[in-house]
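Recap from last week: sequence in, structure out.
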Amino acid sequence: MKTYSSIDGAEWTERSSHTLAFTEPYTMGLVLSAGVDGQFVEATFSNIMWPVLPLGTNQTE
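Predicted structure tokens:
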């Protein structure tokens, strides 16, 4: 997993990189933070990639 940030949406800086190993089912989500209490922030998530589950797999569990 890698995290990136950008001020202008054109140039991106890698902020962190971690390898995750899951042994049980898990839930994935996207999070956004301004990093400052009381500060609001807006974002658009795009080009999100995640491994595709095989056909016939129940993807709602």
